[in-house]
Amino acid sequence: MTFYAYNPLTAPSAPVQAPFSVVAFCAGFFFAARTIFVFATARWFSVGTEPGVLAGFACAALLVIVAAFNAFGPARFFSIGCHSIPSLAWVFAYLAFAGCSLLWSASAVSSAAYWTALVSDVGTVLLLARCMHTTQLVHSLLKGFITASCALAVVALIMPAAEDLRLGDIDYFNTNQIGNLCALSLLMCILLASRNDALMRPIPWFLGITLIRSLSKSTLIALFVCLVYRMVRDPEGSRARRWLTAFTAIFLAVTFWGLFSTYFAIYTSVGNQAETLTGRTAIWAWTLDAALSRPWFGNGFDALWNIAPPFGGELFQARHAENELLQQFFAYGVCGIVLVCGVYGSLYRLFRHLPRSSTKLSLIAFVLYALVRGLAEAEPFDLLLPLWLIAALSLLAASQFSQLAPAFHEPARAAVPNTLSAC
Predict the structure, then answer these.
(1) What kind and span of H or E run contains 3?
(2) Which residue of 50, 113, 325, 385 is 20 to 30 Å from 197, comparing CA positions?
C-alpha cells in the first residue's frame, strides 16, 4: 500500500500554528464520541443497543467516503511505500490476520462489521494523509478527539455515580472507558504542547480532574508512569517546572484523599468480579487455559464474548481478557503475540530514532501508556493504543525524518528504521 507524505521541496514549510482541517477534526471527534453511542440509545432513548452500534458503523462509513473524495485532486505529496514505515506495515498485517480469523472465530457474523470499522478507521487516516500536510492532519485529529473527550467528560460528571463512587455506567459507558478517553486526551495535549500548538490551559486540568474522579485504577497508574517518565527525561524541562509538577500531584492527591480512602474500603469489601484483582485473576486463568487449547492461531476475532462463561457470584460476562497480551494470545494465538509485539515494537523503534526532544518523549509516552495499562486492561476488537492513532503517530514521526532530509525519496527513507525489509 502507498500513502502520501508532505514534500518540503514543492510546498511551503509548516507554520508553528498548524492549519486546521474540518474533516480531520470531525474524524477525531467521532473516534472519541462513538464511545457513548450505545449508552445514548440504550439509556437515554430506550431503543436498545442496536441503533447505537449501527450509528457508529454508519458514521465510520461516511467518514471514509468523505476522506476518499478529499483524496482526489492535485498532489503536493509524494508516495512512500509501506516498507518505509514498519509500524504501518505491522498495522496492515494485524488487520489482515484479524480479518482472516473470522473464518474460524466463534463470534457472530455481525462481528465482521467491527473488523470492517477498524479497517475504515485506519483507511480514513491514510486517505486524509494523501490530501493534507501531516501536521495539519494529526493536529486536527487530536484536537477533535480532545474536544469530544471533554464533552463526554461533562456527561460523565453529570451522570449519577455508581454505588462504588466511580463514574459511568458499568454496562455501556464504564469508568475505564471514561478514564481512557481522558488519559489519551491528556497525552495528546502534551504532544500538541511539545509541538508549539498548545490548547487552552483549563482543558488539561479538566481532563485530569475527570480522570482522577473516574477512579480508573489501571488508567491512573499508566498515566502517572508516563508523566514521571516524561518529566524525568524531558531535556527542555526546567527544575522549577519539575517541582511545580510534583507539588501539583501532591495537591491533587490530598484533595481527593477522602474519595480514594472511601473507594478503597468499598473496593476491598464488596468489589465485583470486574474490579478486584481476585476477580481478574480468575478471568486470566480461564483465558489462558482456553488459549492453550488453540495456541497457534487462536480462537478468532471477538470470540471470547461467545465462549467465556459468567464469572463470580455476579455472573459477570467478560468482554475481554483484562490483559492485552493475554487477549491477543486468546484471539490470535502465538501469531497474535508476534503481531502485537511487532506493532508496539516497531512504533517504539520509529520514535526512538527521532532526535532527542519533547516531541520524541511525548510520542514514546503513548507506547508506555499502552504497555502499562495493558497489564490489567484490554480491548475486545482493537489494541489499547487504537490502530487509527498508531497510523497517525507513525505518519507524524515519519514526517520528522522528511524534514531532516528534504530529498526523502532516498536519504531520508534510509533514515527511517526498517524492521520489515521483506514487506
Answers:
(1) strand 2-6
(2) 385
DSSP 422: T
**Separation of alpha carbons 3 and 230, rounded Å:** 31
What is the Cα–Cα distance from 343 to 360, expressed in whole angstroms?
18
Q: Domain tally for the chain? A: 1
- Mean of pLDDT values over 383-404: 85
Contacts of 306 (CB under 8 A, 6+ apart): 106, 107, 108
292-324: string of b/e by CB count within 10 Å (b at 16+)? Answer: eebeebbbbbbbbeebbeebeeeebebbbbbbb
Q: Which residues contact 421 (CB under 8 A, 6 or more apart)?
A: 83
CB 283 within 8 A of CB 312: no
Residue by residue, what is the 3-state secondary structure of 216-275? Answer: CHHHHHHHHHHHHHHHHHCCCCCHHHHHHHHHHHHHHHHHCHHHHHHHHHHHHHHCCCCC
Q: How far is CA 76 from the centre of its chain?
A: 29
Instruction: Give the three-class secondary structure for 311.
Output: strand
Instruction: State the cell numbers at 284.
Output: 486470566
Q: What does the pLDDT read at residue 109?
A: 66
What integer pLDDT is reported at residue 237 of this predicted model?
Answer: 65
| Number of Cβ atoms within 10 Å of the Cβ of 273 | 19
420 in any annotated domain = no
At which residue does the C-alpha cell 476488537 appear? 381
The CA angle 408-411-417, to the nearest 5 degrees, is: 90
Torsion angles phi and psi, residue 375, rounded to 5: -70, -25
Is 421 part of a structural domain of the chain? no
- 423 domain-assigned: no
**In 3-state terms, the chain is what percent helix, strand and coil (to 5)?**
65, 5, 30
Grid coordinates of 378: 484490554
Least confident span in 27-36, 250-259, 311-320: 311-320
Residue 422 belongs to a domain? no
Q: Are 384 and 321 in contact (CB under 8 A)?
A: no
Measured CA to CA, the distance from residue 26 to residue 231 in angstroms comes to 32
Q: Which cell numbers in the block locate residue 25?
A: 477534526
Tell me the residue range of the domain where 23 lies.
2-415
Can you give the C-alpha Rg of the chain in angstroms? 21
Cα-based angle 396, 216, 313 (whole degrees, multiple of 5): 130
**CB 363 within 8 Å of CB 229:** no
